[in-house]
């Protein structure tokens, strides 16, 4: 990346084309770059040279190592929602069926007078 008179010139070719963003502040002495959509192929050692003419025309280069690690899989909200639906939905259906049977379809459990059970012994 080349920065000249408050304007940055990101790379137009190579592996970082379209993925480098200038985040620096020249007045504050900050020459930070941001690499967008980093991948494991971006691992490596890179050299950076900052020059600020006319005071600094030589600018000693420095090396930095970039290590990209795979992102850990995290439990997403959608997985939690699906699991809750698989547990709560059948539970709600069963509860509604049981409540419906209890409230709406109650049978008269009292036996009519004079009715004798087949196992009841009648004294005579």
Automatic annotation (TrEMBL):
Keywords: Disulfide bond, Glycoprotein, Immunoglobulin domain, Membrane, Signal, Transmembrane, Transmembrane helix. GO terms for cellular component: plasma membrane. Pfam families: V-set. InterPro entries: Ig-like_dom_sf (IPR036179), Ig-like_fold (IPR013783), Ig_V-set (IPR013106), Myelin_P0-rel (IPR000920). The chain crosses the membrane at residues 77-99. It is found in: Membrane. It is a single-pass type I membrane protein. Residues 12-60 form the Immunoglobulin V-set domain. PANTHER family: MYELIN P0 RELATED (PTHR13869), MYELIN PROTEIN ZERO-LIKE PROTEIN 3 (PTHR13869:SF20). This is Immunoglobulin V-set domain-containing protein. It comes from Scleropages formosus. The lineage of its organism: Eukaryota, Metazoa, Chordata, Craniata, Vertebrata.
